[in-house]
Amino acid sequence: METQQTGWVVLKFGGTSVSRRNRWDTIGRLAGKRLREDGRRVLVVVSALSGVTNELQAIAYAPAGDDGGIPARFAGLVERHRTFCAELGLDPDTVLGERLATLVALETDPRAAVRALDWQAEVLGQGELLSSTLGAAYLSSQGHDFGWCDAREWLDAVSLPNASEWAQRLSVNCRHHAEPGFVERFSAQPTRMLITQGFIARHGDGGTAILGRGGSDTSAAYFGALLKAQRVEIWTDVPGMFSANPREVPDARLLARLDYAEAQEIATTGAKVLHPRSIAPCRDAGVPMAILDTERFDLPGTRIDASAATVPGVKAISRRNGIVLVSMESIGMWQQVGFLADVFERFKRHGLSIDLIGSSETNVTVSLDPSENLVNSNVLEALSADLAEVCRVKVIAPCAAITLVGRGMRSLLHRLSDIWAAFGRERVHLISQSSNDLNLTFVIDEADADGLLPHLHHELIRSGAMPVRDDSVFGPSWREIADGKPQRAAPWWQAQRPRLLAMAAAGTPRYVYDLATVRERARALIGTAAVDRCFYAMKANSHPAVLRAVVGEGFGLECVSLAEIERVFQAIPHMAPERVLFTPSFAPRHEYEAALKRGVIVTLDNVEALKRWPETFRGRTLWLRLDLGHGEGHHEKVRTGGVAAKFGLPLARFDAFVDEARKLGARISGLHAHLGSGIDDPQHWRGVYASLAGLADSVGTIETIDIGGGLPVAYTPEAREFDLGAWRAGLDEIKAAYPRYGLIVEPGRYLVAESGVLLLSVTQVVEKDGVRRIGCDAGMNALMRPAMYEAYHGIHNLSRLDDADNAAFDVVGPVCESSDVLGRARLLPKATEEGDTILVADAGAYGMAMANSYNLRALPVEEVLG
Ligand code: LLP
User: Fold this and answer.
1) CA angle, 559 as apex, 554 and 562 as ends, to 5°?
2) Distance from the CA of 538 to the center of ligand 1, in angstroms?
3) Which of 643, 726, 729, 828 has the fewest Cβ atoms surrounding its Cβ within 10 A?
4) Which CATH superfamily is domain 754-865 in?
5) How are beta strands 439-445 and 200-202 bridged, if at all?
6) What are 699-729's pLDDT values in tens digits?
7) Which CATH number applies to 8-50+128-236?
8) How far apart are the CA of 540 and the centre of ligand 1, in A?
9) Distance of CA 544 to CAs 47, 536, 548, 549, 861, Å?
10) pTM
C-alpha cells in the first residue's frame, strides 16, 4: 500500500543537545525553519539531560535493600533540573514543581522496596518528562508556537512472544502501524509544533514502559511511522554515520547515503549514532531518515531511504565489545538429532536472544550481545547450569565482534585477503557471514581488538573492497571534517603544462622527470638526524640524471644487479665504491665477484652462498640481510619478509651464518632488512632497527644497520602524505636506545615517484556495453604497476585539463591482455578524443624501470627537466 505522507517532520535531539541553553536556541531555530520555510508541522522528540538517565538507572537498578546513595541521587537530580531551569530564565517552581514532586515521590513509593519493574520504568522515564517540560516552557517563552505532549498517550508497547518480564517492561517495542484516525487526532493538538519524550511508551497495564537504551531514536522513528512523516531527522553531535567509529579511526568516511538494510546492519553492529531498532519502523512506513549534526548543520549528514542506488562494497567496519560467547559441545554424539532444539530452548527459557551462530558436527557456538540482553553473571550461571544437562558448556568473554557491513559481501571475498591475513594473527573464535549477504563478522578476544580497526579500515580502502571514491555514498573523512581537506601542494607538472604538451607532440609514450622534485625529496631525508647515511635504491629509476641528482644531494646508491653497478660508474665515474651497496637476490656468482672486485659493499642473504662459494667470500667484509619473519607493503607482491618471500636469511639460521662466516674469516659488518615497499606505518622502521640492533649486539663486529627502503607516497586523492615527522621521531627514539650503530636507509620510491609523469596519446575512444574506454598508445608495457599490483595512478587529460564536463572512463593501453588497464572509472572530459595527451601521474618510480616491449611495442622515451 502506498503511504500518503503528511505534513509532519520529526526531529530528535539527544542528551547533549538539550543540556545547554544555546542548544535549545538551536532546536527552536531548526524547528522554526521547518515550520516557516518548509511549511511542515514539527514534532520534537528529546532525551533526558546528559547524565540524567545514568543517575536514574543507578536508582532503578540498585539492589533491593541497598539504599545507600539513592536519596542523594534524587536530591542531585532535583537540584540539577532546578538550576538548569533557572539558567533558562524560567521559574523552577512554576515550570517543574509538579514534575519534581512526582520524581521525589518515587523514592517513597511502596514498589521501591522490591524494585518492582513497573517502578523501575517510572523512575527511568522521569528524565525525558523533565527535559521535555523544560524545553516546552523555554521554547514558548522564546515566542515559538510549541506545545507539550505525553508520548505515552501515543506510543503503545507491544508484548513480543518469549520476551522476559524485564524486556516487556524495560526494553519494549511499540506498535507502529497507526490505527485509523491517529494522524488526525495527533494533528488536532493546537500548537503547530510539539515537543515530546523519547524513551517512554504506554505499557498494556497503563503504566510506563521503557524502550531501552538509545530509545529516543526509536521513539522518533515510531512517531515518524505513525504520522507518516515527511522525514525523521536524528540530530546529534556527530555529522552522521561513518565507515568506522571516528574516535578509533580518524580516516573513517562519512556515509552520505545508505539504504535501510545497510543502515540497519551498521547500527546493529556497533555505530552508536542511531539506535538499531529505529530503522524498521521508518523502513516499513517508507519514511526517509537523516542523521544530522547540531553543531555543523551545513554538512549533508547521512540520508537513509529506499532510493539509494545499490553500490556493492564494504560500507563500514565496526566493533562491539562485551560480547559473550557460549560454546556448546554435544556429548559424544555426531549430528545428534534435536541438539539445537535442546540448547536453543534453554536460551529462550532465560529470555536470551542469540546474535551469531557457528556450528560444526558436534559443537555449536553462539554469541550474546549485551546491548540486547541482560547478560550478567547470574543469568550466565543459570544458563550454563541448564545447558550442562544437554552438553558441555564453555563461556568465553569478554570478546569483541568485528563486523564488515556492505552489500554483496560474497562477491568481495577475493578482495579481503589482507583482512583475513590480519585476523590470521589473532585468535578467531567465530566467523559468521549473514544470510542476507550484508555482513561478515569475526569474534576475537576483546584485548586483541585494540588497535586493529584503523589497520583493517586502511586495508579495506587499499584493496578496493571499500569503494571510497564513489562520492554518492562516501563523504569526507572525519579528519577532513575536523581539520579541513589535506593540504597538498599542486603537483609540479601543472605549471609545466605547455612544455609537457610540446614534448608529447614530439612523440609518446614518454616519461618526463622533474629533477627539482627529486632533489627536494632527497633533502627531506638527508636532513634526518638519526640517519647516518642514505642510499637511493636505483631499481626505482636508474636514469643517469636521476642518479647524479641524488648523489649530488649526498646519497649513496643501492644496486641489485651488476648492470646497475655498471650504470652507477658510467653515470658517475668518480663515485667512491663504499657509497655503493650491492643487495642482489639469487644473483649468479660472477656478479658477487665483480662487485667485490669493484670494492662495493656486498650483502648476502643465505648460508648456501657461503658454503658453495667459499673462495668468493673468504676474508671479505660482508653485510647480512635478514628476514624478520613478516612482510609489509602496499601489495602482497612487494612484501619481502615472511615464509612466502624469497628474500633474507631467516632468524633461525642466523647463528649458522655467523659460524660459517667465521670459518671463512669473513667479517659481518652490517645487518640489513627490507621488509617491503609502500609501508604506511611510520613506526615500521624503528621496529626494524630495534630488531636488528638486538641481534647486532650478539655478533660483535656490526657497525652498520640498514633498515631498508619502503617509504610510501600518496598516490590516491584521499591518501595522506607520509608523516615524515613521525618517522623521524621514531628513529630518533630508537637510535637513542642503540646509539652505537650507523643507521642507514635505502628508499627508492619516495625520492622519485612524484617526480615522474608518463605522457601518452589517445588512440581511440570507445563505448562497449555501457563502459566507456579511452585507449592510449601505451599501457601495461609502459607502466606495469596497475596491472601488476592494482596500483592507482592519477590520470589526467593534459589537453583538456580545465574541462570539467566529465564522465567515467576506463583508461586502457594497446596490449593484448585484459589486464592492460591503467585506471578504471576515472572521471575524464567527455570531449576526450584521438590525439589528446594523457598524463599518468606519480610514475617516476618503477615506471620506466619495469617497462617492456611486449607485443613488440617500443619502449617509452625518457626526458628530464631541470
Ligand atoms: N631496498 C631493497 C633491498 C629493495 O628490494 C627495495 C625495493 C628498496 C630498498 C626500495 O624500496 P622502496 O623505497 O622503493 O619502496 N615494483 C614495486 C616495488 C618493488 C620494490 C622492490 N624493492 C612497485 O612498483 O610498487
Assistant:
1) 130
2) 9
3) 643
4) Lyase, Ornithine Decarboxylase; Chain A, domain 1 (2.40.37.10)
5) unpaired
6) 999 999 999 999 999 999 878 899 999 999 9
7) 3.40.1160.10
8) 7
9) 69, 13, 6, 9, 14
10) 0.72
